[in-house]
Amino acid sequence: MLANVLHAINGVDPQEIPYKPHPSFVGAKNRCLRATVYWRMGIPRTLADRAQSLSCEHKALRELTLRTIREKSAYRLSCENTRVLCGLVEFMGNKEYSLEADIDGVLTDMMNRRYLLQIEPVVQKAFEELLEGETYLEKLIKCCFLMKGAGLTQCVLLFKNKNTSAYLDFLLGYDCKADFLEILSVSSSQGDLITPLQNRFTGLYRAGIEWFEKVEEFANSSILPPRSFSRTSWQCSYCSYGNLCRQDDDKSTNPLPMPWSSLIRRVSNGMSTCIRQE
Ligand code: SF4
């Protein structure tokens, strides 16, 4: 009676969201380059059933969390939904397209220290991985973009479990000049002891810029990037281009999966500029 109409009345029309570079669309381990290239090329998307209404749900969860912080915590919350300029990237022939985003807010503690606040709702599976030390590179890169844009050096990256009421946060420190990010501490609402699998990263911002360059490069060529994940992966189950991707399998000129590290520019001493354990 209602189940079959709710998505129709509340779902987002994917055609109304054309691709443009945004910190939320950066890739690292969990976003598919091939799917992003399809989107950039303007190929119509069909949202997978399980992705319907997601952005509305995320917005509601963010607002719920912001309200709790605003009304009940000792932190001062300011600059909510303030737009920041995170950098310039190439897009549709414009080599200086503004990479902009709205930050969730800025927290000020009782010692007047200021932190960027970034809230990320995640599913139970992702939350369990975070408890096991997973670091979610896409989210870290996004925080580098946002800290640079906001001119802040610390960030509270707050994950909200969508299936339970649990939270988990990373306190991040970022040296924008050196493009060096450190996870300073991790805490969870259940008091778990969490040790990140890696806590020091160099070159994440640069790698994020290179991701957008790669999307442009593929979109402007006739070559499709390879599939990033297996068909049974959760990433493919959420993908808007599943059918097309399967049809295009044989046409892909590069059958090998592209490791994320291939997006990292090499420097003259032969060392990678990114994700190098310090
Ligand atoms: S179906 Fe999977 S591999 Fe294909 S474009 Fe989508 S996410 Fe990428």
Detailed description of the structure:
The chain has 278 residues and is an alpha+beta fold. It has one domain (18-263): Alpha-Beta Complex (Lambda Exonuclease, Chain A). The protein is 30% helix and 23% strand. It contains 8 helices and 9 strands. It has helices at 3-10, 33-40, 54-72, 124-131, 137-150, 204-219, 234-237, 242-247, and strands at 76-78, 83-91, 94-102, 105-108, 114-122, 154-161, 167-175, 180-188, 200-202. The strands form 2 sheets. A 7-stranded mixed β-sheet has the order 1-4-5-6-7-8-9, with helices on both faces. It has a two-stranded antiparallel ribbon with strand order 2-3. The protein starts with a helix and ends in a 31-residue tail after the last helix. It binds iron/sulfur cluster (SF4). The site of iron/sulfur cluster has 12 residues, from helix 2, helix 7 and helix 8. Iron/sulfur cluster (SF4) binds next to helix 2, helix 7 and helix 8.
CATH structural fold name: Lambda Exonuclease, Chain A
Give the uncertain stretches in residue-range form: 252-278
Sheet with the most strands, sense and barrel status? 7 strands, mixed
Give the oligomeric state: single chain
Domain tally: 1
How much helicity do the residues have?
25-40%
Structural class: alpha+beta
Provide the CATH top-level class: Alpha Beta
**Reading side by side through the largest sheet, how are the strands ordered?**
1-4-5-6-7-8-9
Percentage beta strand: 15-25%
Shape: globular
CATH architecture: Alpha-Beta Complex
Helix tally? 8
Bound molecules: iron/sulfur cluster
Q: Provide the succession of SSEs.
A: HHHEEEEEHHEEEEHHH
Mean residue pLDDT:
84
Strand tally, please? 9
The span between the termini is 57 Å
The Cα radius of gyration reads: 19 Å
